[in-house]
Amino acid sequence: MSAQGETPISRRLSKVKHIIIVCSGKGGVGKSSVSVQVALSLYASSPNTRVGILDVDLTGPSIPRMLGLDGHPVHQSTDGWVPVYADGGEARLACMSVAFLLKKKDDSVVWRGPKKNAMIRQFLSDVRWGELDYLIIDTPPGTSDEHISLIEHLSPVHSRLSGIVVTTPQAVALLDAMKCISFARTVSLPLLGVIENMSGYACPCCGEISNVFSTGGGESMAKRENIPFLGTLPIDTELVTLLDAAETEQEDDKPTGDEVHEGFRLLGR
Ligand code: ADP
After folding, report:
1. What is the pLDDT along the chain (269 residues), one digit of tens a residue?
2. For the chain, how are helix, strand and coil distributed in percent, rounded to 5?
3. Domain map of the chain by residue range?
4. Does domain 8-263 have CATH number 3.30.930.10?
5. What are phi and psi of 23, to 5 degrees?
């Protein structure tokens, strides 16, 4: 660390204005899909907004697949790793994930804490994020080694950090979401709010929402804990189709910015 308290990570992230950590208590509640939707909404919010999405769900990385970037190689430059851009030439939507570093996409990552910690440090210090308005970080479910590493490594830029908690309406998910809230309090991570995903079912024909499970649990939890409630997302079959069908593009037919806007029209709404 230099005299001014600078670290390789704070230097690398010096032009990143906001860093948003997305957490969930449980797996499968839609944390990665919400991370992607948050990133795409911010990307689409203005033609100049620059967004990065970092996938630190090391054992279950799914962001590249959701963005149609599966199998893309990561290039190493003299100044570090070049992130993969999901919007081709516009280069306003940057992505980095351990999935880009695996030889085969179904290879598994079986690492103990120290190796995960080293990987996270490298993602934060070695990726050429450049100038970003927002860096969205998708984390594994729960509050694990990865979360502790992130908070420790990002301590020099703590004033730019915030978090979002994703939950589903069911009591078990809410119980685990409370653990994320309590973790955030312990590490003084300000929470932007709670998102209740899979809240009701959106009929593909008429869009009407029916409540297959309970609903509103996320909102009451947010109220009770004095945290903003950011809203609900229904179960949407079109969303699943879009996320699952995101095909990998070849290098020379990467989508243009306009195609990304159109392709992710639904996700970014
Ligand atoms: P997590 O990151 O919490 O493990 P994912 O984002 O990978 O969860 O989502 C798990 C599965 O649920 C994925 O197949 C995703 O497409 C689907 N999914 C997430 N949110 C919704 C939603 N609102 N409507 C329908 N399917 C969803």
Report:
1. 554 578 999 999 999 999 999 999 989 999 999 999 999 999 999 999 999 999 999 888 999 999 999 888 888 888 899 999 999 888 999 999 999 988 766 666 767 778 888 999 999 999 999 999 999 999 999 998 899 999 999 999 999 999 999 999 988 889 999 999 999 999 999 999 999 999 888 787 887 878 777 777 899 999 999 999 999 998 888 888 887 766 544 444 444 444 333 333 333 33
2. 40, 25, 40
3. 8-263
4. no
5. -125, 160
Tokens of 69: 């970037």
Quote the CA–CA distance of 148 and 164 in Å, as a whole number.
Answer: 16
- The helix (run of H) or strand (run of E) holding residue 134 is strand 132-138
Residue type, 129: W
Query: For residue 149, how far is its CA from the centre of ligand 1 (angstroms)?
Result: 25
Ligand 1 atom with least separation from CA of 202: 24
Ligand 1, residue 26: give the atom nearest the CA: 3
* Residue ID of nearest Cα to ligand 1 atom 4: 28
Most ligand 1 atoms within 8 A of CB, residue of 22, 32, 33 to mutate: 33
How far is Cα 210 from Cα 201, in angstroms, rounded to an integer?
Answer: 5
